[in-house]
């Protein structure tokens, strides 16, 4: 599997954010997207996820599931946790599993993996910032998709959470997945750098 972008141009609010951007990532590989604030890291992830339309260039996945679009083969985790505060932890995860569809894995096991099994019935409104992030990460495990698009994924995680997350990323890459992560700090696993714009 290979995800590649060629000559991508991104325009937001009528202003060019970047142009002529090329990248490629293969199965088992992680790309760390770096660049100064406002350089377009989040925008690039949203372009790959199909949430924005490029003003130029192409993005394509080869060797994936021919019956699914690129967007359907991506997990997009934004920098804000997309949770419904009134639903419990388990209900939030079930919502995402239903929404995303596809082959579904054991939600209770995913919650245990991210250390939230004790909080399954707690309304998401009561979670701490790090717990909310852990719940978002559980989505990655409950519905399997090969391309993980992660925006500042380590925000709010404590040292044990970082260790856990690095383990999840390595497992995913070991299964032939790929990771494109926007980050201002080292990702914690071996990765190639994709820089947008000049040096910070
Ligand atoms: N909805 C929008 N309408 C207009 N401009 C936008 C919109 N969203 C983002 N932008 C602009 O696009 C540019 C790139 O934003 P983006 O969020 O992709 O940057 P980033 O590299 O992820 O930044 P950061 O490091 O601060 O998270 C910024 O100048 C931003 O103001």
Any chance you could write out the topology, listing elements then pairs?
Blueprint: E1 2-12, E2 15-26, E3 30-34, H1 41-48, E4 56-62, E5 74-77, H2 89-100, H3 107-113, H4 129-142, E6 147-151, H5 159-174, E7 178-182, E8 192-195
Bound molecules: adenosine-5'-triphosphate.
Adenosine-5'-triphosphate (ATP) binds at residues 12-13, 17, 35, 37-43, 182.
Q: How would you sum up this structure in a few lines?
A:
This protein is α/β, with parallel strands linked by helices and about 200 residues long.
Question: Overview of this structure, please?
Answer:
The chain is built from five helices and eight strands. It has one domain: Rossmann fold (3-Layer(aba) Sandwich). The strands form two sheets. A five-stranded parallel sheet has the order 5-6-7-3-8, sandwiched between helices. Strands 2-1-4 form a three-stranded antiparallel sheet, covered by helices on one side. It starts with a strand and ends in a 5-residue tail after the last strand. Helix content is 28%, strand content 26%. It is α/β, with parallel strands linked by helices and 200 residues long. Bound molecules: adenosine-5'-triphosphate. Residues 12-13, 17, 35, 37-43, 182 line the site of adenosine-5'-triphosphate.
């Amino acid at each position: 599997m290979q995800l590649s972008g060629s000559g991508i141009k991104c325009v937001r609010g009528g202003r060019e954010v970047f142009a002529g951007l090329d990248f490629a990532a293969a199965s088992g590989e992680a790309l760390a997207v770096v660049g100064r604030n406002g350089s377009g890291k989040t925008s690039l992830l949203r372009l790959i996820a199909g949430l924005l339309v490029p003003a130029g260039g192409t993005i394509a996945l080869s060797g994936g599931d021919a019956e699914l679009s690129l967007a359907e083969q991506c997990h997009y985790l934004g920098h804000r946790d997309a949770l419904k505060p009134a639903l419990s932890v388990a209900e939030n995860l079930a919502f995402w599993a239903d929404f995303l569809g596809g082959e579904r894995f054991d939600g209770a096991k995913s919650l245990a993996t991210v250390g939230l099994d004790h909080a399954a019935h707690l309304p998401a409104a009561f979670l701490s910032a790090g717990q909310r992030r852990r719940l978002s990460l559980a989505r990655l495990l409950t519905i399997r998709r090969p391309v993980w698009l992660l925006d500042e994924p380590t925000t709010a995680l404590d040292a044990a959470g970082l260790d856990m997350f690095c383990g999840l990323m390595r497992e995913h890459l070991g299964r032939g997945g790929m990771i494109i992560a926007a980050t201002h700090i080292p990702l914690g696993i071996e990765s190639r750098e994709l820089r947008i714009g000049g040096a910070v």
